[in-house]
Design a protein that fits this description.
Helices cover 29% and strands 43% of the residues. It has one helix and five strands; from the N terminus they run βββββα. It has a five-stranded antiparallel sheet with strand order 1-2-3-4-5.
């Protein structure tokens, strides 16, 4: 499976590619978590919004919103781990 990447331009005009870790919805809002690469422990949370030009990523900077995103991510990972465990079991 090919990794999805997103290119972002920083404040200085430099373009950098990030790997999409996961996309998910919370209360009718779509979020994406991005990482610099597979080895990086740093993950950046963005809210996906729309404007007249298409999708726009807004970095999540509000602590309460970031905590909400982190909690939703942890729950998704727990669900995925449980599904993997269930697939590995034989009856």
């Amino acid at each position: 499976m090919e990794e999805e990447t997103i290119s972002l331009i920083d404040d200085e005009g430099n373009e950098k590619d990030y790997e999409v870790v996961i996309r998910f919805d919370i209360e009718d809002k779509e979020y994406v978590l991005l990482s610099e690469d597979e080895e990086s422990d740093d993950v950046y949370a963005f809210l996906i919004t729309e404007d007249e030009e298409g999708q726009v990523l807004m970095q999540v900077e509000d602590e309460a919103e970031f905590a909400l995103v982190a909690e939703a991510y942890d729950e998704l990972m727990d669900e995925m781990d449980e599904e993997d465990d269930d697939e590995g079991k034989t009856e």
